[in-house]
């Protein structure tokens, strides 16, 4: 199966890792995963954004560590859709935060005669305090990238 995911992945945390792992699980043996990594152009409003290269390296390192680096393509995306509307994908893995974008992608695909993507939604990964792990919480020093409480 051809699966796509996308994001900024500024601080690669447990939630991102769960999303990536789920994409590989859905793709299965012989499948492929496309990871759309946002460019600085569309993330200008975000403070303390790491460079594209730093974010890409963190993903590559994680994929290598988990032995998932086969059949993956990481490409820059300049909008929230990336190539998901025009390209041949079977599924998209999203979080509750991005499910509406996946539904929008399917509406756009339908308009141009493409089959809709199977939308696979993971749940938020929760920190020790039961609140979702997020880059903003990590930046504030509330939790670490694995969701452990720091304060």
Overview of the molecule:
The longest helix has 14 residues, at 14-27. The protein is globular. The chain has 151 residues and is α/β, with parallel strands linked by helices. Helices cover 30% and strands 18% of the residues. The termini are far apart. Strand 4, helix 3 and strand 5 form a beta-alpha-beta unit. Strands 3-2-1-4-5 form a five-stranded parallel β-sheet, sandwiched between helices. It contains four helices and five strands. The relative contact order is 0.20. The chain has helices at 14-27, 52-65, 99-111, 135-139, and strands at residues 2-7, 32-38, 72-77, 91-94, 118-121. It has a single domain (2-124), classed as Rossmann fold (3-Layer(aba) Sandwich).
Looking at CATH, the homologous superfamily is: HUPs
What is the CA–CA distance across the termini?
42 Å
CATH architecture level-2 label: 3-Layer(aba) Sandwich
List the quaternary state of the chains: single chain
Report the order of strands and helices: EHEHEEHEH
**Proportion of residues in β-strands:** 15-25%
Radius of gyration: 15 Å
CATH fold-level topology: Rossmann fold
How much helix is in the residues?
25-40%
How many alpha or pi helices?
Answer: 4
Average predicted confidence as pLDDT: 94
Q: What's the overall geometry?
A: globular
Model regions low in confidence, pLDDT < 50 over at least 5 residues: none
Number of strands: 5
Structural class of the helix and strand makeup? alpha/beta
